[in-house]
């Protein structure tokens, strides 16, 4: 084998190992078909996996997260969507995306007419100051969102959190 | 796994009640290292399903972005007297269940 070719194949082999290592270090949640595994853990990839090509509009969703959080271990979050929650017009799904979390797609909630009201409360873990987005998918297939910027004074991912 | 579920004891038919649940769970992110430098494996409650009146009325899929000892509050429309039952499972396939009875007056 000529020297140049051997060097190239060696480089390719090393690149392959590097890629595999990278893939291992990134936990993948909800891997969606058709979404590149390398971007699933970016805010854009998470958004793509939810919208699947559709567009979303601002409104109807009210995301309530404090503007400033002392630390990121546990940040209260309430999301509410204006909807009659009837059989024909209801919220089917609510997704939460935290832009700077290692896995931006934080949670997905599934609800329906039997919920009666579209309002969910939980507590988030936030890796620093960032934007949190709530996206609702309605029964007619439309997507609506609200986004809030949260200042986190002490991140969740540094120590025992 | 210890959990606490809270539902109002009684409701009128059609009334919307809040279900509150807290589950004792570390929601391990998989990004932490112990004193010996070993990575603590990721372990989160990834799915929680609430069943009431013969149907699944709520489902949550969660990741490490939900705080330790996950808390959830979600609404359910009162239809008939029965148990509101939440079941969940974590990354180590440890499952749990908690339920509360709701009495519905016509």
Structure class of chain A? alpha+beta
How big a fraction of the residues of chain B is strand?
over 45%
User: Count of helical segments of chain B?
Assistant: 0
Q: How much strand content do the residues of chain A show?
A: 25-35%
User: How many beta-strand runs of chain B?
Assistant: 8
Order of helices and strands of chain B: EEEEEEEE
Work out the helicity level of chain A.
Answer: 10-25%
Descriptive overview:
- The complex is a heterodimer of chains A (161) and B (106).
- Chain A has 161 residues and is α+β, with helices and mostly antiparallel strands.
- Chain A is built from two helices and nine strands, in the order H-H-E-E-E-E-E-E-E-E-E.
- In chain A, a hairpin with a 4-residue loop joins strand 8 and strand 9 (143-152).
- The N and C termini of chain A lie far apart (53 Å).
- Chain B has 106 residues and is mainly β.
- Chain B has one domain: Immunoglobulins (Immunoglobulin-like, Sandwich).
- Chain B is built from no helices and eight strands.
- Chain B has strands at residues 3-6, 10-12, 16-23, 45-52, 55-62, 71-77, 82-90, 95-105.
- In chain B, strand 7 (82-90) and strand 8 form a beta hairpin.
- The model of chain B has no long low-confidence stretch (mean pLDDT 93).
- The interface between A and B is medium-sized, with 37 and 32 residues.
- Strand 6 of chain A pairs antiparallel with strand 5 of chain B, so a sheet runs across the interface.
Compact description:
The complex is a heterodimer of chains A (161) and B (106). Chain A has 161 residues and is an alpha+beta fold.
Architecture blueprint of SSEs:
The complex is a heterodimer of chains A (161) and B (106).
Chain A: H1 3-25, H2 43-51, E1 56-58, E2 61-64, E3 68-69, E4 75-81, E5 91-98, E6 105-110, E7 119-124, E8 130-138, E9 143-152
Parallel strand pairs in A: 1-9, 3-9
Antiparallel strand pairs in A: 2-4, 4-7, 5-6, 5-8, 8-9
Chain B: E1 3-6, E2 10-12, E3 16-23, E4 45-52, E5 55-62, E6 71-77, E7 82-90, E8 95-105
Parallel strand pairs in B: 2-8
Antiparallel strand pairs in B: 1-3, 3-6, 4-5, 4-7, 7-8
């Amino acid at each position: 084998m000529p020297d140049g070719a051997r060097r190239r194949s060696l480089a390719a082999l090393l690149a392959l190992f590097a890629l595999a290592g990278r893939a291992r270090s990134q936990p993948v949640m909800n891997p969606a078909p058709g979404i590149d595994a390398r971007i699933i853990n970016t805010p854009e990839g998470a958004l793509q996996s939810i919208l699947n090509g559709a567009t979303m509009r601002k409104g109807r969703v009210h995301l309530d997260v404090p503007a400033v959080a002392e630390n990121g271990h546990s940040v209260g979050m309430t999301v509410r969507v204006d909807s009659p929650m009837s059989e024909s017009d209801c919220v089917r799904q609510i997704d939460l995306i935290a832009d700077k979390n290692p896995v931006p797609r934080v949670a997905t909630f599934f609800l329906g007419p039997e919920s009666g009201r579209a309002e969910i409360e939980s507590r988030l873990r936030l890796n620093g100051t960032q934007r949190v987005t709530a996206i609702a998918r309605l029964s007619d297939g439309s997507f609506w969102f609200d986004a809030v910027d949260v200042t986190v004074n002490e991140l969740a991912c540094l120590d025992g959190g | 796994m210890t959990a606490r579920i809270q539902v109002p004891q009684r409701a009128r038919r059609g009334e919307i009640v809040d279900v509150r649940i807290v589950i004792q769970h570390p929601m391990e992110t998989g990004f932490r290292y112990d004193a010996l430098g070993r990575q603590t494996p990721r372990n989160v409650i990834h799915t929680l399903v609430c069943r009431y009146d013969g149907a699944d009325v709520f489902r949550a899929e969660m990741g490490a972005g939900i705080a330790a000892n996950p808390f959830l509050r979600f609404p359910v429309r009162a239809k008939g007297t029965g148990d509101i039952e939440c079941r969940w499972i974590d990354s180590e396939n440890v499952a749990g269940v908690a339920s509360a009875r709701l009495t519905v007056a016509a």
